Amino acid sequence: MGRGQLILIEGLDRSGKSTQSAILAEKLGKSKLLKFPDRSTSVGKIINEYLTNSSFQLSDQTAHLLFSANRWELNNEIIELLNDGYFVILDRYIYSGIAYSLAKYEYSKTANNSGVIASTTASEQMGDVEWLYGPDKGLPKPDLTLFLTLDLVELGKRKGWGNERYELEEFQKIVKSSFLRILNHEEDETVELVDVSGKNIEEVTALIWEVVEEKKVNQTTERQIEKLS
Ligand code: Z5A
Ligand code: MG
């Protein structure tokens, strides 16, 4: 028996990541769904405080490293599950880690920055993609990454906006361009963009399943688990 495959669902806020990861996990059968940040772990509890309490202060570098540390907390579990034949579905992972930090760097230079989303002085590390990527090197590389992208106007209409630190429309625009800058979808054949604008939940599920079948990540494999390098 080969190992299960690692499938990542990334995307803009409210693009339907959690909805679609749960559906995909169900469709794949022997699977486990993991969400980042995982707010239940030791590091995850600090991240939760940071995201939900605007007066809780962390430097931008510290927040970045904590999100990565939170992924390392689950490193062994992910590898064990894959080797036990489980399909592991990730709801956000490294691309969110890099894109949000990069977006904070851009946002810190705008006139509206009050210090809640990003530090008021732009720190050079936050604009350095190599630095941002560094702490995640060595984590398992997804066999497939699906990036759910959405029209910014439609995004604004989705439910539940405005409760957490990064949920500001102006910031989300910068997040979208940061994701598109770092995804490397044109060269990396394991990364696919899925435009969900104007599509209902069932239609998005069908689009995702089409890619999953085409990339054969719904079958176990004999390939080694790749590491991010
Ligand atoms: N973050 C970071 O900075 N660094 C990191 O390394 C990581 C994360 C991993 C919390 O993330 C924050 O952490 C996030 C990035 C940062 N910042 N922000 N903002 P989170 O994952 O906990 O939370 P979220 O992504 O902001 O939101 P979300 O609620 O998880 O969104 P979603 O999962 O993409 O969407 P959803 O819950 O599936 O759907 C949202 C709503 O839209 C819901 O009412 C659905 O019923 C509806 N929906 C879903 N699909 C559709 C379609 N197709 N049509 C219409 N309506 C739909
Ligand atoms: Mg979600």
Automatic annotation (TrEMBL):
HAMAP family to which the protein is assigned, alphabetical: Thymidylate_kinase (MF_00165)
Enzyme Commission number, as recorded: 2.7.4.9
Entry's family note: Belongs to the thymidylate kinase family.
UniProt-listed GO biological process terms: dTDP biosynthetic process; dTTP biosynthetic process; dUDP biosynthetic process
Involved pathway(s): Pyrimidine metabolism; dTTP biosynthesis
Gene Ontology terms for molecular function: ATP binding; dTMP kinase activity; dUMP kinase activity; nucleoside diphosphate kinase activity
UniProt keyword Ubl conjugation present: no
InterPro entries assigned to the protein according to its UniProt record, in alphabetical order: P-loop_NTPase, Thymidylate_kin-like_dom, Thymidylate_kin_CS, Thymidylate_kinase
Domain of life (superkingdom): Eukaryota
Keywords: ATP-binding, Kinase, Nucleotide biosynthesis, Nucleotide-binding, Transferase
Residue ranges constituting the Thymidylate kinase-like domain according to the UniProt record: 9-104
PROSITE patterns according to UniProt: THYMIDYLATE_KINASE
GO CC terms in record: cytosol; nucleus
Protein name, per record: dTMP kinase
Record organism: Scheffersomyces stipitis (strain ATCC 58785 / CBS 6054 / NBRC 10063 / NRRL Y-11545) (Yeast)
Ion transport found in the keyword field: no
Signal peptide segment: none
